[in-house]
Each structure stands twice: as C-alpha cells, then as structure tokens.
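Appendix B.2, paired examples.
Example (i):
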Amino acid sequence: MCKYEQIFTKGDHILLYEGKTYKGMPYGAGTAYFPNGNKYQEGVFDIKGLILGKEYYPNGNVRFEGMFRIHTAYGPNPPVYGRYYDPEGKCLYEGKFQCHYGGVNYPIVVQPKGYGSIVQHEKPEISYISWQDLDES
C-alpha cells in the first residue's frame, strides 16, 4: 500500500524526498531534492525512479521535462521524449531521445548530443523500487 512520507538523510536529517512511497521508497507522485535543498526530480516515480516529470540541475533550473522509460536491465530509467535544457535554462532540444546500451546494458543518451550522464553526480542517495520489491508484495 502506498502512503505519503518524507525521506531524510541519516545523521544531518536533510530532506531527500517527499511524496507517495511504497516500502519506504518513492513510488507515485512526489519530489526528490538535492542535498542543497533544491529540487532534483518531481513527478511520478515508479520502478527505478522517475517516469514522468521534471529533472533539475543543482542550481534549480530544469534539465529535462518529459517521459522516461522503465529500464528492465542494469542502469537507470533513460529519457524517452521531452525537452532538454542547459544549466542556464535555454531549451537545447525537444523530441524523441535515443539511447545506446553498453556492454552491461547501461543506457547512454546519444541523441541529443551533449546530454551527458543520465545520472547527475550530485544526485541525492535515494533507493528506488525494484522489480524484486514488487514481487515480494
């Protein structure tokens, strides 16, 4: 059963996520935060993270808004369709995203060029629902 929760870091008690959860992990509508307090992602969370919504840069500007695909193999959910912005807020691309899948099936964005790593280095340390978590229901 999903419920509303806030997830904090251990020790310094910094808010990492607030919204719907399942088994103490983001699942449903919610917002994740960078350790600096700015939004990291907001929208609908599912298996392995965000599937619909916005992702932000640590400076607070939108990085991507749109849809992500639930990735059934190793690695995070890649963007599928939406808008990609630079750190200053300029829209650099709108449309379908194309990914290449490496040797361990880890997704890498190849279109648009310059998107960079799917996972930002400053991202909060949050555990997301996995296929196993749903199987154990």
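Example (ii):
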Amino acid sequence: MERIGRLLVIDTATEALSVALFVGETLIDHHHEISGRGHAEKLIPAIAALPDGGHADEIWVNSGPGSFTGIRVGLAAARALGFAWGAQLRTYSSLALLAAIAQENDAENGIVSVALTGGHGELFWQEFDSVTLDPLMAALSVPVSELAQTANASIVYGTGAQTLVTTRGYGEARPLYPDARSALLLSVKHMSLDASAHYGREADAKPAIAMIAPIS
C-alpha cells in the first residue's frame, strides 16, 4: 500500500505485541515480541521507545478478531494517540494481515487458509484468494472439532494452524503471528476508517443490563 508521511502500526490482537514506525514506505524502527499477556503494561513503553515517541501522521491498528483484551488495548492506545496527534486512524483485520504475510512468503496461487486461535476451543477461520487477497468467505469462529470436519486446505497458516492440522490428522501447519512490520502488504481495500473492535464472537462476559433487557 503506497503511502507518504509517518505511519505508526499497532498490533496487539493476539499473543504478539507488535509496533512499527514507517516514514513513507521505509521501516524506521519496530518492536515485536510474543508476550502472551501484559499488552496493557507493555504497549505504551514500546511505542515511547520508537523515534520521536512513535509520533505519526497516521495510525493503523489491528481491530480483530483475536484476544478481547488485546484488541481493546490496541484500539484504546490508537484512539488516544490519534486524538493527541491529530492523526488519521485506520483499522485492519488480523486474518487479512496473516493472509498477506503468507502470500508474501510462500503461498502458492489458489487459496490462503488462515486459522487464528480463539477462545473456548474455537478458531477464527477465513480463506482468501492468494493473488488478490480478496476474502472468499466471511470470517467465522468455529469449534476446532467442527472446523476439522469441513476445512480441507492442505496448508493452514496462523496461530491456530497447528491445532487444526493436529485435530484433523493431516495437512501442513505454518504458524504465523500478526506483525506490524508487514502492515504495508495490505491494500486500501483491507483498511477501514471504522475504529470499532471486531471480536469475531460474543464476549465472554455480558454487561449486567443485558440480562434485564435487550440493548437496542
């Protein structure tokens, strides 16, 4: 995705905590670790350690699906910094970024199948055209046992790839985590100005009011 100006990318939707600072299309600095937990404590220091405190004209942030907490942490930081800096805020999908990374590295022509670790024994699942990266289906959150009966891709990418391949007993898993350094692989069609979270499934905890009456 060709661009100019300074861009900060924030990705905390999975076990990976990843930030990257670009000027134009040149990567200036980054921080990437598989931290599992602690994104809320680690994210702001990671951004502050970038040149000029990560100050940018535009901010991209992973809006999910993935970890509820991780998604919220990333979006909250992006909104706050965007407001403080007067920066344009855009969001992208975890699954689209993983498909783009797979395409860049080793995906053959055909279909890129992505499985992302979810919660309660489920995986987030989506398939993309390996040339255009257009989604071939809506993103789903599916129990692993159920997905193993229907997903027949020979190669599966993502954090949930090994779980799916092991459960169904065949295929090749190529584990991948979202990486902020790879965000420029995404095109305009993969970006959104909607800064809402896209969890991919219902939250584990419901607000108390939801037990009394539906929220319109």
